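TICKET #2291
ISSUE: user wants both folds in one file
ATTACHMENT 1:
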Amino acid sequence: MKEIIAIIRPKKVVPTKEALEKLGVPSLTAIPVFGRGKQKGIATELDIEIRPEILDQSIKAGRRMEYIPKRLFSIVARNEDVDTIVETIMNVNQTGDIGDGRIFICPVDDAIRVRTDEQGDNALL
């Protein structure tokens, strides 16, 4: 099993969720987060489109801001599903512009469904 952690633009949440549902991904966790990457917090047009108030913050900070709003998706998946899930997230979120996000893939030792005591892949489905 692997955990796929994807950090994406808020505007891409709905299309990403819809694409993952079509794949049959049974569950995910989505969390609003703030952060910055290599662009050092420079607001892009896509960021400003989502939250116009960050333009003012960006101007006051000399065209830089500390953090930009993003969404973090956490998905635990079977090993054989990881490549397809990552490819789908990439296809939906890749614009070629700064701020498209990051995807991290981490090993998961085990999963346990609390209600039924199921473990491993059975706990995921």
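ATTACHMENT 2:
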Amino acid sequence: MYVSTRRLITALSLLTAVVLFASGCGSDESSESQQPTSAAPTTPQRMDVQSLWIRPAPVGGNSALYMRLVNGTAAPDTLVRVSMSEADTVEIHESYQRDDGMTGMRPIGPLPVAPKSNVVLEPGGKHVMLLNLKEPLVSDSTVAVRLTFARAGMRRVQASIQNTAPSGN
């Protein structure tokens, strides 16, 4: 019986040493994996397009598209293209003060939108020119517009046709 007790004590000591060794070796990993995680999930972030409107215009005429681009992401994005079937040509423009004191317009190409910011396209500032309209743009109706962003991709939106900016802009 003496040999059995001695073997039992040796086996228990060996088992204890193995358990202590194994738990000691893994303590860094297990404590890292048990670190608390963020309690609140992050809010989905995206590029949002708000308050789209277009001034009415006849066939063959020109008009302008206005809107607010809200970049809720942590990365910069760029509006690279705007298209709509009613216009022959669609260009991103800005108004500027000419040397003679008159106001002019010029194409500016792609429009950057910084992270966590917004860009307002409005009369007298940045806007989208709709040139050589193929169809009339009639008040109190809507048209489909396709916006293509470098990161956010293509967005299909509806723009209302009206004489003035929507209320709240």
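RESOLUTION: both attachments delivered.
EXTRA DETAIL ON ATTACHMENT 2: Strands lie at 47-54, 63-71, 77-83, 87-97, 103-107, 111-113, 117-121, 126-133, 141-149, 153-161.
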